[in-house]
Design brief:
Number of strands: 8
Shape: globular
Radius of gyration: 17 Å
Low-confidence stretches: none
CATH architecture: Alpha-Beta Barrel
Structural class: alpha/beta
Bound molecules: iron/sulfur cluster
Length: 236
């Protein structure tokens, strides 16, 4: 599948910490997280979206760089597309800062992006503890790739965050403890409450209630000691 975008959100104040950014949503994903609410990006054959080509996206962002000088590339999963380094390089040539959101399944591409200094910020989804990844992602995971990506990000000089969308039935206090032990010492960790709005990949998740605020706080309190900074982000 070649790189295309299902949507460009022209202005976002929340996707790139400290920046006003445009957010670009790539089409296609190699995971099938049951709680995912991006059906149209993950299963584009079900909902043929309006496709935006990389060339159109570069043109659009370069026209608007007087107002917005940062981009968030999210998905779907951006790193499944081999044209991604070329695309980011083109944005950087326009003077646009780039944040990448990834599920961590392609450490080889992350290595290339880091070595070419193409990233200004990275956010990696931590789907669950290492022993529960298959259940949380709906596919068989090569867990070594996930570990390698987290390690690369943690040891890079680029600002980063790890984040987990927490879902009742998939995550609990024990999961949080295991995640903390895995990523011990990392800079920043965010908990995002699951929301069923917009329809989930696995329809049985559409009726699920999210964690209540006091439950989220309990989950956060378990991971807090392992990170320099750990918070709850409520906008998802
Ligand atoms: S939530 Fe999972 S399935 Fe959905 S886009 Fe992210 S990685 Fe892909």
């Amino acid at each position: 599948m070649s790189l295309t975008f299902g949507q460009i959100q022209k202005t976002s104040l929340i996707d790139y910490p400290g920046e006003v950014a445009s957010t670009l949503f790539t089409v296609g994903c190699n995971f099938r997280c049951p709680f995912c609410y991006n059906r149209s990006l993950v299963l584009p054959e079900e909902y043929p979206p309006q496709r935006i080509t990389p060339e159109q996206a570069i043109l659009e962002l370069s026209k608007r760089k007087k107002y917005v000088q940062a981009a968030v590339i999210t998905g779907g999963e951006p790193t499944i597309h081999e044209e991604l380094p070329w695309f980011i390089e083109s944005l950087k040539k326009e003077g646009i800062k780039v944040k990448l959101d990834t599920n961590g399944s392609n450490p080889k591409m992350l290595t290339e992006l880091f070595s070419k200094k193409l990233l200004d910020y990275v956010a990696m989804d931590i789907k669950s503890s290492l022993d529960s990844y298959d259940e949380a992602t709906g596919v068989q995971i090569d867990i070594a790739q996930i570990k390698e990506s987290a390690q690369l990000i943690q040891s890079s000089a680029v600002p980063y965050e790890f984040r987990t969308t927490v879902v009742p039935g998939l995550h609990n206090l024990d999961t949080m403890e295991r995640i903390g032990k895995w990523l011990n010492g990392a800079n920043k960790y965010i908990l995002q409450p699951f929301t069923a709005e917009g329809g989930t990949l696995d329809r049985t998740y559409s009726g699920k209630a999210p964690f209540r605020p006091q439950e989220l706080t309990a989950l956060l309190n378990v991971v807090k000691p392992y990170f320099k900074e750990a918070t709850i982000r409520e906008y998802y």
